[in-house]
Amino acid sequence: MTQTQTQSTESEGTIYKVAGPVVIAENMEPQMNDVVKVGEEGLMGEVIQIEGDKSYIQVYEDTTGVKPGEIVHNTEQPLSVELGPGLLGSIYDGLQRPLPALEEKTGAFIERGEDAPGINTEKEYRFEPALEEGKYVTGGDVIGTTEVDYGEHKVLLPPGIEGEIEEIKEGEFTVTETVAVVDGVEVAMRQEWPIREARQVENDLEPKVPLITGQRVLDGLFPLAKGGTAAVPGGFGTGKTVTQQSLAKFSDADIIVYIGCGERGNEMT
Hints:
Oligomer: single chain
CATH architecture of the largest domain: Beta Barrel
CATH superfamily of the largest domain: RNA polymerase II/Efflux pump adaptor protein, barrel-sandwich hybrid domain
CATH class of the largest domain: Mainly Beta
Strand content: 25-35%
Number of helices: 4
Shape: globular
Strand order of the largest sheet: 1-2-5-4-3-6
């Protein structure tokens, strides 16, 4: 979900008005949800409303000092997330910018306009094909695997691609290098997916397997199911985050994705 997406073309507009985190630009001709770079520092934003030649932009960084007349670059790409080997085990901000990489660039305090790839594009992974050339595949099929720190990572064919495998390789590759060619389309281990577009599924799995949380009061009185949903409502200081941390630490789950929205720094360490 970074600014380092593949950009074929760009168009420009100018800032008409700044109102806190919302910037109004004119003469840009964007589409809804386009990613834009605002001002001289290239602050990351997203088009949330269009009225005539005015585009309303939600800027995801501090807009202090941004003023009318500055240039707004439209990437003409939707806000997207990067998927691939190395995603799990990483620490990101809300825009999938890897915090360790940003710390190396700017120190403990992240500067405005800074960016880094969501997935390491230089590290090589060994790709093992799971299918042979000539096999007919569709989006979501497993075309190969690679070993990562947390085990085996399955490489899926991106949705919207189907046809015969014309070429598939074995060896060491970065996530951006081509590992297969399907009906003339080059496929790598890394994908970009628009965050506001639902991921395609063939069917939903019914939650039947219990999720053992390790907390007796939950397992006994409020049992949960793998694939289910639960909420912990409560006032300030009542222990919601502590409960969440206990679930993340002791639950019978292979993968924990911990999201802290508005949390204190010590609650995330």
